[in-house]
Amino acid sequence: MSEANIEGNTGGAAPTRKEPDHIRRVLTIWVVLSIVGIVIWVIVSPYILPPSASDIDSAANFTLVVFTGLSIPVAMFVFVFLGYSLFVFRVKGRPTEDAIPLKPRPGLQIGWMGVTGALCLFLLIWGLSAFYQQTASAAVSPLVVKVTGQQWAWTFNYPQYGASSQGQLIELPVNRPVEFDVTSEDVLHGFAIRALGVRVDANPGEVTTTPITTPTQIGQYSVACVELCGLYHSYMWSTVKVVSASDFSSWIISQGGHP
C-alpha cells in the first residue's frame, strides 16, 4: 500500500499548534496601557492637584505630574505581566508536573539594573537641581513671619513691622519672598499652607525656619495643622490672604505695626 493510501486511511498527522509569542504580546499590551495611562494622567492632573499660589508649590505640582507619569509604565509593567501570567498560563486543578526551570539571562538582568539605575539617577539629578534653584533664588531679606502653635490656634507675628496678627487671619504681599519661623508652646503641631508649598513641624521649644517661598497669586488660602495635637486638632485652621503691596501695608498698620 502506498504512503498516500496510508495517509488517506489514517487522516494524516494532526498539525502542531504554534505557540504564540507571549513576550511580544505582553510588551504590546504594556506599551498601549502605559501610553493610555500617561495621557489620562496628564489630562486629569490639573483637576486633581490643588491650585498653586507660589513658586515652590508650582514646582512641587510639576514634580508630582512628572514622577507620577514616570511611575505609570513601571506599575503597568508589573500589572500586565502578572495579569497575563494569571490568565494565559493558568491550569485547572493541581499541577501534575514541574514547571520549566528558569535559565539565567545576563542580558535581562543587566538591562533591568540599568533601567532602575537610570531612574534613580534621574531622581537624584532632579532633586539636586530643584535644591540648587531654591537656594540660588533665595532672597537676601525676605518677609519674616513668626508662627507659634498652641492648642488649638496659631499666633502670627511680623517682627520687621512690630505687628501681630489679631485673630486667625494673616496677610502676605504678592510677589514678595516669605519665610516662616515656626515653633510651638505645648505639643507637636504641623504648620502647612498647601497652596504656598509650606509644610513644617512646630516643635516645642525649637524654632524651625521654612524654605523661602514667594506667593504669586492674589487670593485666600487655608492654613492647617497636619499633626494630631489633641481633642480639637481638626478645628486648628486659619486663613492666609495674599494681597497687593499697598493692601498689605494698610493691613500692617491696622494690626498695630509700622509700614
Order of helices and strands: HHHHEEEEEEEEEEH
Strand coverage percent: 15-25%
CATH superfamily annotation of the domain at 143-254:
Cupredoxins -  blue copper proteins
The computed structural class is alpha+beta
Number of strands: 10
For the record, the CATH class of the domain at 143-254 is: Mainly Beta
Separation of the first and last Cα atoms: 115 Å
CATH architecture of the domain at 143-254: Sandwich
Helix content: 40-55%
- Count of helical segments? 5
Reported for the largest beta sheet, the result is: 5 strands, mixed
**Major beta sheet, strand line-up:** 3-2-1-5-8
Estimated radius of gyration: 30 Å
Gross morphology: elongated
Q: What is the arithmetic mean of pLDDT?
A: 82
Which secondary structure elements does this structure contain, and how are they paired or packed?
Layout: H1 3-10, H2 22-48, H3 55-88, H4 106-136, E1 143-150, E2 153-158, E3 163-164, E4 169-173, E5 178-184, E6 189-193, E7 198-202, E8 208-209, E9 219-225, E10 237-243, H5 245-254
Parallel strand pairs: 1-5, 4-10
Antiparallel strand pairs: 1-2, 2-3, 5-8, 6-7, 6-9, 9-10
Helix pairs in contact: 2-3
What does this entry show, briefly?
The chain has 259 residues and is α+β, with helices and mostly antiparallel strands. The protein has helices spanning 3-10, 22-48, 55-88, 106-136, 245-254; strands spanning 143-150, 153-158, 163-164, 169-173, 178-184, 189-193, 198-202, 208-209, 219-225, 237-243.
